[in-house]
Design goal:
152 residues; alpha+beta; Arc Repressor Mutant, subunit A; Alpha-Beta Plaits; elongated
Length: 152
């Protein structure tokens, strides 16, 4: 683990709230100069602690009003490789995340769709036809709160 001080944690917390901020803006909010803040951000990137920045899209405003979490259990692990399943499922544009998990299911998928009938189409024509798919359990997302994470 890399040694981080309170300033590093403050920079990370600031960036988790708004990853589009410039080093100057982050530094100003923390009482640091832009060059000092930029050097710290660069070090966090080099150490692999800050691994990227992302944009969160509002799926509903883009026309995808339904989000479903699928638990997928592969029917025949020996005959279908995990890599084959992962390659096939990541090619489906409605599948937003693919998580290989331990437990009742082998994979947890986050799937977006325009509405429930669109989700049914994606499920029947794309997901259920993937290599090795056995049992599938669906949970429709009702609401979601974004948690700040372990930096609080």
């Amino acid at each position: 683990m890399t040694d981080l001080d309170s300033t590093d944690f403050a920079i990370l917390k600031s960036l988790t709230q708004d990853a589009t901020q410039s080093a100057g803006a982050v530094g100003k909010s923390l009482g640091l100069s832009q060059p000092a803040t930029w050097r710290r951000i660069r070090k966090l990137e080099e150490d692999g602690i800050l691994t990227g920045r992302r944009v969160d899209l509002d799926a509903e405003k883009l026309g995808f009003g339904v989000t479903v979490f699928l638990g997928v259990k592969l029917a025949t692990k020996g005959r279908v490789s995990l890599e084959d399943f992962e390659r096939a499922v990541t090619a489906i544009p409605e599948v937003q995340t693919v998580q290989h998990v331990l437990g009742l299911y082998d994979y947890r998928l986050r799937v977006v769709a325009r509405d429930l009938s669109d989700f049914e189409r994606v499920l029947r024509r794309r997901i259920m036809t993937l290599p090795g798919v056995g049992n599938v359990e669906a949970n429709v997302l009702l609401s979601e709160e974004r948690l700040a994470g372990p930096l609080e």
